[in-house]
Amino acid sequence: MLDRRRVVAGLGATALATLVSNELRAAAIKPDEVSALLVIDVQNCFLPGGSLAVKDGEQVVPVINKIAKTFANVVITQDWHTPGHVSFASAHSGKKPFEAIDLAYGKQVLWPDHCVQGTEGSALSKDLAIPQAALIIRKGFHRDVDSYSAFTEADGKTTTGLAAYLKARKVERVFVAGLATDFCVAWTALDARKAGFETYVVEDACRGIDTQGSLAKAWADMAEAGVKRIQSSDIGSD
Ligand code: VGL
Ligand code: ZN
Questions:
Q1: 89: Cβ below 6 Å to ligand 1?
Q2: Annotation says 3 is catalytic
Q3: What DSSP letter does each residue of 139-184 carry, written as one string?
Q4: Nearest CA to ligand 1 atom 6
Q5: Active site residue 139
Q6: Which architecture, in CATH terms, is 29-81+114-234?
Q7: What is the pTM (predicted TM-score) of this model?
Q8: Of 81, 89, 91, 99, whose CB count within 10 A is highest?
Q9: Mind listing the pLDDT tens digit for each residue in 43-52?
């Protein structure tokens, strides 16, 4: 048996550099026809000046535009609430944004009013440039049920149809990017795992809200579920 360390030690500098760069290239992830990019909630309400602005949220846009070029399959989501939605603090007397309440389906964090159907705040960022995106899926449009996830509403049973759509298109692995890491991105990634997809979250293509430890918990839950945490530089087309 060859001792790999001894072999490496015996290589000249150029050969060693080639070996290392080949190993790095082998590590690059190449989106193929069974891969889909899910672009989560890059909407005005979550961007600077929006009612639920995510810190540095605008910084995801160029990163997403860049990686999206390497995907044939792209799905975009929009948080799409009714006026007076159950997730709005304003719908509950005496409650303030970022407090939580118990609803029939579980704990619900309350938010400022955001992403009301058809408003300017609910529109996708005008700087997103993903012309090949084939599907825009809207979620959270039932007044009494929230939906962070692009797959299943917060009642844990009402489907958006996304898993069936992706499976009908023969997609096996999904890459998740957008806003916010600790809510809609994380819940989407966790549900993608539950639906049997190999799942990647592209960390630098996401930003989090981070309220009451939510960001650390989201990463821990995703790691536990087998979600792979990658950077946009891990994705390459060659
Ligand atoms: C989101 C809070 C409320 C998100 C949506 O897109 O992560 N967060 N609604
Ligand atoms: Zn929402």
A1: no
A2: no
A3: E--STT----SSSB-TTS--B-SHHHHHHHTT--EEEEEEE-IIII
A4: 184
A5: yes
A6: 3-Layer(aba) Sandwich (3.40)
A7: 0.90
A8: 81
A9: 999 999 999 9
